[in-house]
Automatic annotation (TrEMBL):
Protein name: Ribose transport system ATP-binding protein
Listed transmembrane segments: 529-548, 554-575, 587-604, 610-630, 642-660, 680-701, 731-750, 762-780, 787-808, 814-831
Keyword terms: ATP-binding, Cell membrane, Membrane, Nucleotide-binding, Repeat, Transmembrane, Transmembrane helix, Transport
Record's keyword annotation contains Nuclease: no
Phosphoprotein among keywords: no
């Protein structure tokens, strides 16, 4: 196979929809791509093959604007488009389905579509919701638009990613391992969508590790190895052996290691027996596995395979018995002693922020300790030996695991499993997204583990994989084993026939263990607004109790006092909320409010001309905006952590305030104070302003691109960038908006305290964070409301007032605030953990 084939020359005479010529990209002196050229003709499916780390994803990131090449040219329909960004690539009609879906877990299905797609795509008949449903129906995805994406399975998230790509009717569609988590029916439907798109003239770039898919879909194929183009040819003119030889740079003698054989050595130390095993999603599983055998779990995706594996790993409750080596193992024992390799390598299999060494060692730390201390030399030696034995390719053991290719990441997961000295090894889709060379190595590793006496259970949607690897296969349908295959009976045809021809009825699943599909009240309880309702109810109950004890609590004077104080804290909380929604925090809000009051104390005084007063107010606003820009610039430009950046401003603003006014001074105009504290009966004017601002911000958060992008940046920054969100700009403008709301809070402090005090405001940073946490905003970003922080501020002031009217000491103010924060943290965190467990259960 070479570049001079006459068939290729004939294709190349037509104008290429996408042409990439001489593309070169290096990272730290290491070439990821070296002078790579490829052309995609109109109306063709062009497969790109290569091992993990060959440069395929880097090349596609260049094509979609996610990566800027060091050299080379990109042409779309013959036009040199220069350097692309995700947004400009989309404008040129280039769409991509990523191997790891660029979805935002904290946003709903509809909001994910709204963030990623042009507004025009969702303006069809019936409005946004109807258009969104049609987009999902096209790819066969049946989910509620109001559900959070975090509750979706891996396969559903992939379908959502596919739906986004097809919705824009792209000129060039790039598909990176699109079928990896999909079942047979979904794959067939997806292939029909690809063929329809090609029939309409769309050019498709198809990246896969499955040779059968290349044969079924592709017209031409290009092979990359070590960042270089190794050849391009018509698929019909090249054999699988030739392709494999080019992909791995060597001839593979066999993809699969030899099977156990009929006369197995009975001296191995473990066996596996399942007796009447039932749990969420499966029932009545009986199996007896020979020593040294690998048992496969087959069936159409979603028929209980993953549920069974999670139970074997001790991650789900089960009835019945699991016997390993003749010993019955409880769920708790399996959780400690079984090793589980999940299908979602990034989400569940690896801690992406940790190093290769740390990920491999984390399950075996006890074996590296001497007393309470970790013996680092022993850890390094043992982990290094394990990684070398598995041929893990990494710059070093201390390199971030995220820098490794998919195949090497999977080997790290296997290394961790084997280092834990498991009694049972469980692998769910162990070669998903892994190239052919790494697949053969992983198969060999699993066979070696089984030969050492560790029972190995493998679930895979690739029946050819199960056919070549396993000594015994359990075919599941509707949560039940409908066929047990051994020896020569383990064929793709027998597995598919057993799964498709099964007449098994659906099992009854206890409601408490059934995968979650929230409706009605349950969906509301899981929504962002549930904490706000809880806080509002607490305000009403607490208010009624205090009023019952002391009728003066509901006096006009006291209500005005509470609402005025809540207004000052409320504006701070709204600002803090914006920072937290982006995944950050702003420790400078309190000192900034105090500093602005100090500045105002030189301008907003009795007897000063109106122009001077307006100048002072304008200067306050400019200072606030400047502080927001500095905070945002330090975080996104200088790459400070949000805590470090805003703590620096916290200290600096406190110092500037003391420089301007070493002591209290500069009394605020009485007229201005009267204006700020004006009220209509028991309702202060500025409290009404606070409510209006909160409602407007809430509407913007839910119904505008600003709000979607703000939450997208905090939900998953990488995914947000991938779908075209300008994360840096979004975060910087978010901190500017935070500072602008602090300016409104400073106006309230001017009216309340009436004097420039250099120490005023610092304590309100913690108060603002408390109000936001009470309101239900996630400290991890991406999730929350603006109504919640407003109610949180009101509750805090009500608690402070309660200590007076109930005759309690000042110390109880801190007890009550601490108790509220603790309860809020427990309730909201527990709820989120439960949702994650339910999500894991359906994956």
């Amino acid at each position: 196979m070479n570049e001079t084939l006459p068939e290729r020359a004939a294709v190349a005479t037509a104008p290429a929809t996408l042409a990439m010529r001489g593309i070169t990209k290096t990272y730290g002196g290491v070439a990821a791509l070296s002078d790579v050229s490829v052309e995609i003709a109109a109306g063709e499916v062009h497969a790109i093959l290569g091992e993990n780390g060959a440069g395929k994803s880097t090349l596609m990131n260049v094509a979609t604007g996610g990566t800027q090449p060091d050299a080379g040219t990109i042409l779309v329909a013959g036009e040199d488009v220069g350097a692309l960004s995700p947004r400009s690539a989309a404008a040129h009609g280039i769409a991509i389905v990523h191997q790891h879906p660029a979805v935002l877990p904290d946003l709903t299905v509809l909001e994910n579509l709204e963030v990623a797609l042009p507004a025009s795509v969702l303006k069809g008949e019936g409005g946004r919701a109807a258009s969104a449903r049609r987009i999902l129906e096209r790819v066969g995805l049946d989910v509620d638009l109001r559900d959070r994406v975090e509750l979706m399975t891996v396969a559903q998230r992939h379908l959502l990613e596919i739906a986004k790509a097809f919705a824009v009717e792209p000129r060039v569609l790039i598909l990176d391992e699109p079928t990896a988590p999909l079942g047979d029916d979904a794959v067939r439907h997806f292939f029909s969508l690809v063929r329809d798109a090609v029939g309409r003239g769309t050019s498709v770039v198809y990246i896969t590790h499955r040779m059968a898919e290349v044969r079924e879909l592709a017209d031409r194929v290009t092979v990359l190895r070590d960042g270089r183009t190794r050849g391009t040819a018509l698929v019909a003119d090249v054999t699988d052996d030739e392709l494999l030889s080019l992909i791995v740079g060597r001839k593979l003698d066999s993809t699969f290691p030899p099977k156990l054989g009929a006369a197995a050595d009975e001296a191995f130390g473990h066996d596996l027996e399942l007796v009447g095993l039932s749990g969420p999603g499966f029932a009545g599983i009986d199996a007896k596995v020979r020593r040294g055998a690998i048992v496969g779990i087959a069936g159409v995706v979603g028929n209980g395979q993953t549920d069974l594996l999670r139970a074997l790993a001790g991650l789900e409750q089960f009835d019945g018995e699991v016997r390993v080596g003749g010993t019955a193992r409880s769920g708790r024992e399996l959780l400690r002693r079984a090793a589980y390799m999940p299908s979602d390598r990034h989400g569940e299999g690896l801690a992406m922020s940790l190093s290769v060494r740390e990920n491999a060692a984390i399950s075996a730390l006890k074996s590296f300790t001497a007393g309470p201390l970790l013996r680092r030399p022993r850890e390094v030696e043992t982990v290094g030996g394990s990684l070398r034995s598995l041929a893990v390719k990494a710059p070093s053991m201390d390199a971030p695991v995220g820098a490794l290719s998919g195949g090497n990441q999977q080997k790290v997961v296997i290394s961790r499993a084997l280092l834990s000295d498991p009694v049972l090894l469980i692998a769910d889709e162990p070669t998903q997204g892994v190239d052919v060379g790494a697949r053969a190595e992983i198969y060999g590793i699993l066979r070696e583990a089984s030969s050492r006496g560790i029972p190995v259970v493998v679930a895979s949607s690739d029946t050819k994989e199960l056919e070549g690897l396993c000594d015994q296969v359990l075919v599941m349908s509707r949560g039940q084993v409908v066929a047990t295959l051994e020896g020569d009976d383990i064929t793709e045809e027998r597995m598919v026939s057993a799964a498709v021809g099964s007449k098994a009825t659906a099992i009854a699943t206890p409601e408490a263990l059934r995968p979650e599909h929230p409706t009605g009240l349950r969906r509301f309880v899981q929504s962002d607004f549930a904490p706000s309702v809880l806080v509002a109810a607490l305000i009403v109950v607490l208010g009624a109790f205090i009023a019952a004890q002391n009728g003066a609590f509901l006096s006009t004077f006291n209500l005005v006092t509470i609402l005025t104080a809540a207004t000052a804290v409320g504006f701070l909380a709204l600002g803090q909320n914006i920072a937290l929604l982006t995944g950050g925090i702003d420790l400078s809000v309190g000192p900034l409010a105090g500093f602005l009051v100090v500045v105002a104390s030189f301008f907003v005084n009795d007897g000063k001309p109106v122009g001077t007063v307006l100048l002072g107010l304008g200067l306050m606003l400019l200072i606030a905006i400047a502080v927001g820009l500095v905070n945002g610039g330090l975080i996104r430009g200088a790459r400070f952590t949000p805590i470090a950046a805003t703590l620096a401003l916290y200290i600096a603003l406190g110092g500037f305030a003391l420089l301007l006014r070493p002591e209290q001074g500069g009394y605020i105009s009485q007229d201005f104070q009267s204006f700020v504290t004006m009220s209509f009966g028991p309702i202060p004017l500025f409290f009404i302003v606070l409510v209006v601002v909160a409602v407007l911000l809430e509407l913007a958060l839910r119904r505008t691109r600003w709000g979607w992008r703000l939450r997208a940046a905090g939900s998953d920054e990488v995914a947000a960038r991938t779908v075209g969100v300008a994360v840096d700009r979004t975060v910087v403008l978010g901190y500017v908006a935070t500072a602008a709301l602090v300016f409104l809070s400073a106006l309230m402090f001017m009216g309340q305290y009436g004097v420039g005090d250099p120490t005023q405001g610092s304590a309100f940073t913690l108060t603002s964070i408390t109000a936001v946490v009470l309101g239900g905003t996630s400290l991890l970003g991406g999730r929350g409301t603006f109504i919640g922080p407003l109610l949180g501020a009101l509750l805090l002031q009500q608690v402070l007032s309660a200590t007076v009217f109930l005759g309690l000491g000042t110390v109880f103010q801190y007890y009550f605030q601490g108790a509220l924060i603790l309860v809020a943290a427990i309730v909201y965190t527990t709820g989120r953990i439960r949702r994650r467990r339910r999500r894991a259960a359906v994956e």
